[in-house]
Amino acid sequence: MDVKKEYTHDGVTVVWKPGLCIHSGNCVRGLPNVFKPDEKPWIQAENASGPQLMEAIDRCPSGALSYYTTEGITSEEKKDAMEKSKVEVLNNGPLMVSGPLEIVHADGSTETKNRNTAFCRCGNSGNKPFCDGSHKG
Ligand code: SF4
Ligand code: FES
Questions:
Q1: Is 110 helix (H, G, I), strand (E, B) or coil?
Q2: Is the full-model pTM beyond 0.85?
Q3: Domain residue limits, the chain
Q4: Which of 24, 45, 77, 115 has a CA 20 to 30 Å removed from the CA of 68?
Q5: Residue-wise pLDDT tens for the chain (137 aa)?
Q6: What's the 73 CA to ligand 2 centre distance in angstroms?
Q7: Is any ligand 1 atom within 6 A of the Cβ of residue 64?
Q8: How far, in Å, CA of 135 to CA of 137, rounded?
Q9: Which CATH class is domain 5-80?
């Protein structure tokens, strides 16, 4: 039987399937406080936020690490969506980007968006980087 372990923190359940790991080390490099190969358990999900866990796991090349969230997002769906991501340039308006997305802000904070996100392209938004409709004024 294939071994599978799950660790839940901050709305994200990390799924670990050791049989698939190709030891790329991306996980350890991405979140050394969470992925600690020399400790037990080696995954300490409580040491990062949900978005940080998702971002690190998205870099696992083998599928040994995956996740699902309480909102019903799964790493497989996110990968599929990323491969088909679309940016629509609206006439005299924002850039409409199809989610799910992880946004890394200028101050380093991160935010996850699940559907369409409008990014201001005119520079007038009071809610940058998002469009607030000011381009019409
Ligand atoms: S990123 Fe994935 S494949 Fe690489 S070491 Fe971590 S679990 Fe294994
Ligand atoms: S594009 Fe809408 S406010 Fe800038």
A1: strand
A2: no
A3: 5-80, 85-136
A4: 24
A5: 688 999 999 999 999 999 999 999 999 999 999 999 999 999 999 999 999 999 999 999 899 999 999 999 999 988 887 777 789 999 999 999 987 788 999 999 989 888 889 999 999 999 999 999 999 97
A6: 28
A7: yes
A8: 6
A9: alpha beta
